[in-house]
Amino acid sequence: KIVVPVLTSIRQRPAMFNNGVYPGVEYRIMKIYDTEGNEVFGSVPGGKYDLKPIYPLVDQLERPWPVTVNEAEIPRLYTVGMYNTVSALGSLFTATFGLGVAYALSQMISLFFIPSRSMDPTLAVGDVVVVEKVSPRIFKSNNHVGDVILFHPPSRLQEIVKSSGGRIGNRDLFVKRVAAEPTQKVTVGSDGKVLIDEMELQEKRDMCSEEPLGLIERYIEPGTTEVQSDEVFVMGDCSSVSIDSRVWGPLPNKEIIGKPLFRVWPIERFGSIPTLEKTQLQTEWSD
Predict the structure, then answer these.
(1) Mean pLDDT in the chain?
(2) Of 118, 239, 240, 245, which one is the catalytic site residue?
(3) Contact criterion met (CB below 8 Å) for 133 and 256
(4) Which residue among the candidates 43, 133, 176, 242 is catalytic per the annotation?
(5) Which of 59, 131, 200, 227 has the fewest CB atoms inside 10 Å of its own CB, making it the most exposed?
């Protein structure tokens, strides 16, 4: 009969190796003895086994075979079929658990690569930020002026991009900063300047040098709108190049998926995301 010794505790490993009973190795039972040393044809409580591996081992594990081991010194003996089944189930559990943990983490945090200058210089092209995705799902209306948010493109933004010949889908992501909250009235001028409740923005929104051709003015939708309870008005810190709520209107809260926590790349800019008051002009517009 072929059996496989199995550990039930890592502390059992030294004693098993000392006795020549290696966990996971297939052994043939050569003889079985009862407590008085008589050879028997089946296992008995307190009996002993003569064991020999069914295949050659590495030199470090070889010894004179068979070895005689008391049944009490072997934590468990499985048949080959039982051992393979347990191993397969263990591997399946480990893989499933690992995938489950990875999926759970992906639903909580993720990395995002900054693809455009719309948040320059707060977030520059090529920056990589860590985004937490839990709070927007739990507190759907907990978005305040100054918060930097990550969101899926609303339908109006998708229409604008597609009508311009671009490609965009529901899974694409954008990053902007909240400029107005629910109940606030936003007035957008033809030049892109914004008034909140008839007052100029308290935060500086033209953080980068103006784009020389003023292309953003072609897309601006002048007018006044009141931000509803389930939406926010967002803008980029580099307002001269940012296609934001001035163009496609307020952003529904349901499209918000996360908030950047801190920047991890490049290393020299590692740290938290600056507020508008702390951000300083770091880049100049170049033709």
Answers:
(1) 85
(2) 118
(3) no
(4) 176
(5) 59
